Amino acid sequence: MAETKRDAKKYEKINNLVFLADIILTILILLSFFITPLSLNLMKIIEKNIPESYGQTVHFILLNAVYLTAFVFINWAVFMPLYYYASYHVEHKYGLSNLTRLNWFKDELKKFVITVLTKLILIEALYLLLWKQPGSWWIWTAVVWIVFSVIMSKVYPSLILPLFYKLKPIGNESLEKRIKTFIEKEGGGVLGVYEWVLSEKTKKANAAFAGMGNTKKVILGDTLLKDYSEEEIETIVAHEFGHHRFRHIYKFLYIGAIFYVASFALINMIFKGLVDIRYHGYIEFYSIATFPLIALLIYVIQLVAMPTFNAISRFFERQADRFALEKTGKPDAFISGMTKLAEQNLANKEPNGVIEFLLYSHPAISKRIEAAEKYKKNISAGQQNN
């Protein structure tokens, strides 16, 4: 037990240092492209090889698409050693990964393709609006990004998740009935309960209530199904359903919408302040050569906002925990389930308070268990009084 606790702290420290390295490297790359003529030169090389006979708009879109693909690839190549160290070497070092190097690389290629496609949609829209709607681009860009977020939330369990993991019917009638009965009792509905084949890639356990509207699914990791009791799994599913009951996905979308509007409004103000400054011979901010500047501004704004988003997320998680305890009435199963998850996922139960505030989207496991213990005592006291 003591050794697991030490490993969890070391594992967290390594991941925190990797995250810090990721921040520093990202900012350095974006600054190097923005401050030097690198971005402009990359754009010019691409521009020379795209015929203008396609028409101005098509030329603009193709130039942006090739530039973005090249830029993402350069970043991917630069970050690959860090990705490998964090998601392959460290995971194997602490006995958390089942991936071979080949399968790890295949997953990274899939992530690269998805990243390129999503950036093409979002950044192409941003630059087209910068070009065509210079006065109101920031409003329309926020609208496009919000709609895209909603679409991705809806299609993720059906289109994206199966690219990385197998989903299959759960094959446990007793557990499936227990879960469906609970959800129906609480006024919810799902497409079905599925086994999420995590064991091909990891030893970690997880569960989710994925999708929106008519795409909702309960997905349970096979690593969870293997070692957890039905009551423990019920409390975990109840927690996930709590997010649905309190409409946390929708609330995050609303918060994200406000964030997008505020972020692009701020970037628009910065652009207006830079309008008289020539960027290596260019003053048109709709030129794709200015992408490193936009990416840097978005990245820094996200970093500054991250503690606030994490604080909101922790509040939502506490709500979902309380829901699971109240609706199942099984604090012992909740506590044992949380304890198992912490040990299996090598989570640091008692992180540094500053680290938790800055980086944790969930409350520390020790606090979640403490809240469940308090709930259990209150229930016992109430029963004694009766």
Given helix and strand content, the structural type is: mainly alpha
The N- to C-terminal Cα distance equals 39 Å
- Beta strands, count: 4
| Tally of DSSP helical segments | 13
pLDDT under 50 segments (min length 5)? none
Q: What's the order of the H and E elements?
A: HHHHHEHEEEHHHHHHH
What general outline do the C-alpha atoms trace?
elongated
Strand order of the largest sheet: 1-2-4-3
Task: Provide the gyration radius in Å.
Answer: 24 Å
Q: Describe the main β-sheet briefly.
A: 4 strands, mixed
Mean pLDDT: 90
Name the helicity range: over 70%
Provide the β-strand percentage band: under 5%
Please explain how this structure is put together.
There is one protein chain. Strand 3 (207-210) and strand 4 (217-221) form a beta hairpin. The radius of gyration is 24 Å and the shape is elongated. Strands 1-2-4-3 form a four-stranded mixed sheet. The chain has helices at residues 2-35, 38-48, 56-93, 101-132, 137-164, 173-185, 222-227, 230-245, 248-274, 291-328, 331-344, 353-359, 365-385; strands spanning 166-169, 193-197, 207-210, 217-221. Helix 1 (2-35) packs antiparallel against helix 10 (291-328), helix 8 crosses helix 10 and helix 10 runs parallel beside helix 13. It is built from 13 helices and four strands. It starts with a helix and ends with a helix. The longest helix has 38 residues, at 56-93. Helix content is 74%, strand content 5%. By secondary structure, it is mostly helical.
What's the arrangement of secondary structure elements?
Blueprint: H1 2-35, H2 38-48, H3 56-93, H4 101-132, H5 137-164, E1 166-169, H6 173-185, E2 193-197, E3 207-210, E4 217-221, H7 222-227, H8 230-245, H9 248-274, H10 291-328, H11 331-344, H12 353-359, H13 365-385
Helix pairs in contact: 1-3, 1-10, 2-3, 3-4, 4-5, 5-9, 6-8, 8-10, 8-11, 9-10, 10-13, 11-13
